[in-house]
Amino acid sequence: MKIQSKFLVVLCAVLALALAAIAQTAVAPAPTTLTAEERDAALKSLQATHDAFLKSIAGLSDKEWKFKPAPDRWSIAEVSEHIAVSESMILGYVQKQIVTSAATPEKRAEVKVTDQQILTLVPDRSHKAQAPEFLKPTNRWATRDELVKSFEDSRRATMDYVRTTNDDLRDHFGPHPLLGPMDAYQWILLISAHSERHTKQIEEVKADPNFPKE
After folding, report:
1. Closest CA to 137 of 85, 207, 210, 98
2. How far apart are CA 141 and CA 143, in angstroms?
3. Is 69 exposed, middle or buried (0-12, 13-18, 19+ CB in 10 A)?
4. Per-residue confidence at 32, pLDDT binned at 50, 70, 90?
5. CA–CA separation, 42 vs 45, rounded Å?
6. ∠134-135-138 over CA atoms, to 5°?
7. Dihedral of CA 160/166/170/173: which sign?
8. What would be the CATH architecture of the domain defined by 33-206?
9. Where are the extended beta strands (E) located within the chain?
10. How many CB atoms lie within 10 A of CB 123?
11. Rounded to two decimals, what is the model's pTM?
12. Per-residue pLDDT for 36 more than 80?
């Protein structure tokens, strides 16, 4: 009987530990992956702005590519370089810094910009902004084809990431110097909005009265 009693005590203790472990597992929050709607919205925007940028630079002569409307304004080549280098840097920031940091869902209340505002405010050219030094054009690519390939590779990587990731993009945040805290998904939307903004800048260069017509 004593042996049975000891056995029951040990069994109860084991069961208690097992139940406690199950309870802890049950309350642990699961990663918040993107919804199908969020993935679809980002992919549609990324595809549309990809197509618009490539259309804006298609068929340009060398003179048109390098034309500067003024000494302090960028050529289409320089704007395109800025778009291309920003693509890879923003995606790298999301993957290597934002989502690898600790999830902080409590920071959601600090985000002041909506997804839609990113897609509408960032492309608005009525408000000018200076690019940071590390994103300014420095003739990184020897040829236009190499620049376009880099853009294509980066945009493809971004879209593949959106299609397949299970990262919790809504509970990881990174600060933007003008827009404030944004979650990782919003940083992905920024890639699209940023390229749209500067595609509009390319169209402004092409509309300049001194733009070479060839």
Report:
1. 85
2. 6
3. middle
4. low
5. 5
6. 85
7. negative
8. Up-down Bundle (1.20)
9. 173-176, 180-183
10. 18
11. 0.83
12. yes
Which amino acid belongs to residue 188?
I
User: Would you kindly state where each structural domain of the chain is located, as residue ranges?
Assistant: 1-30, 33-206
Main-chain dihedrals φ then ψ at residue 12, nearest 5 degrees: -65, -40
Alpha-carbon torsion (186, 188, 190, 193), positive or negative: negative
- Strand-pairing partners, residue 174, are 182
d(C-alpha 174, C-alpha 163), whole Å: 21
CB of 195 closer than 8 Å to CB of 83: yes
Output the six-digit token pair for 82.
Answer: 């800025």
| Residue pair 151/52 in contact by the 8 Å Cβ criterion | no
Query: For 83-138, what is each residue's pLDDT tens digit?
Result: 999 999 999 999 999 999 999 999 999 999 999 999 999 999 998 888 889 899 99
Contact criterion met (CB below 8 Å) for 190 and 182: yes
Q: Residue 139 is encoded by which pair of tokens? A: 């003739």
Give the Cα separation of 151 and 172 in Å (integer): 26
Position 209, amino acid: P
